[in-house]
Amino acid sequence: MKELMDKITKSGHVLGEEVLKVDSFITHQIDPELMEKIGTRFSEVFSEAGITKVVTIESSGIAPALFAARKLQVPMVFARKSKSLTMDEELLTSSVYSFTKQVTSKISISRKFLNEKDNVLIIDDFLANGQAAKGLIELCQQAGANVDGIGIVIEKSFQEGRHLLEEMGIKVVSLARVTSLENGAVHFDQADA
Known about the structure:
The protein is built from five helices and ten strands, in the order H-E-E-H-E-H-E-E-E-E-H-E-H-E-E. With 193 residues, it is an alpha/beta fold.
């Protein structure tokens, strides 16, 4: 997606050979016009899939997932990283290791929002090692839901995430594929959509 790659080139910051900081438009401050275009693109790619829910993980996946869900005209559900006092119902849970934060979080979704009738599109902001997406797939499997595909805003294709998800038989669609962050520059491969 050209607009996304242009924004990464202009406003992203390379912090070493494995970390790309995009906090000015995705992970802290959000560019709503760009997010709407991202959501629209995911909805176009998955428009014929019969998606019934868009699922993501808090917090940076919420904006692109919400715009995709709005365009697909389905609910968006996000996995929480911590249980609130109001979450007293039966929960689907999984553990997720964050590459960026270097911590493992227990994520959860209430069973009342995901079930065996759902055909799910998972959306996430980054794909690095694939652990967040894998955790969301596990939650969907616990509910008996089908995962039709995974939409990724930015993939670091020099890490193993895509391979892990494709080995699980899941379609991965990345809007920006970063092949390298060497010498402080972002290098791209052709995106999936």
